[in-house]
Amino acid sequence: ETGVTQSPTHLIKTRGQQVTLRCSSQSGHNTVSWYQQALGQGPQFIFQYYREEENGRGNFPPRFSGLQFPNYSSELNVNALELDDSALYLCASSLGRPRSYEQYFGPGTRLTVT
Amino acid sequence: SQQGEEDPQALSIQEGENATMNCSYKTSINNLQWYRQNSGRGLVHLILIRSNEREKHSGRLRVTLDTSKKSSSLLITASRAADTASYFCAGYSGGGADGLTFGKGTHLIIQP
Question: What mean pLDDT is reported for chain A?
Answer without folding.
Answer: 92
